[in-house]
Design goal:
Layout lengths: L2 H11 L9 E4 L8 E4 L5 E6 L10 E7 L2 E4 L8 H16 L3
Antiparallel strand pairs: 1-2, 3-4, 4-5
């Protein structure tokens, strides 16, 4: 297994909900204390260059899309796109191939 994938699986595993395959912690919106989403029900998992928002200027984040709503997963932000892609891949791997 490539070293990058091992790192990414460890990174994604920090925010996985252990008792529910496919569920990962996400950043809450509004006045919520915490949030989780089921990546299995997402329409897409994307890597986003977040210079479009002020939250993480010039960093890369992983988001799950549910129709037209994007939810930022609680991993990262990452300094480069490659790291974010590895983590997105690891999240999908964990969601659809739970060990």
């Amino acid at each position: 297994m490539p070293e990058e994938l091992q790192w990414a699986l460890a990174e994604a595993g920090k925010e996985a909900v252990a008792v529910a395959p496919g569920w990962f912690r996400a950043w809450p919106t509004g006045d919520e204390k915490w949030s989780v989403v089921n990546v299995r029900s997402a329409t897409q998992v994307i890597v986003n260059h977040s210079r479009e928002d002020d939250r993480h200027p010039n960093a890369w984040t992983v988001r799950a899309l549910f129709g037209d709503k994007a939810v930022e997963l609680r991993v990262g932000p990452y300094d480069n796109k490659a790291q974010a892609i590895w983590v997105a891949h690891a999240i999908l791997n964990m969601a659809f191939n739970p060990a």
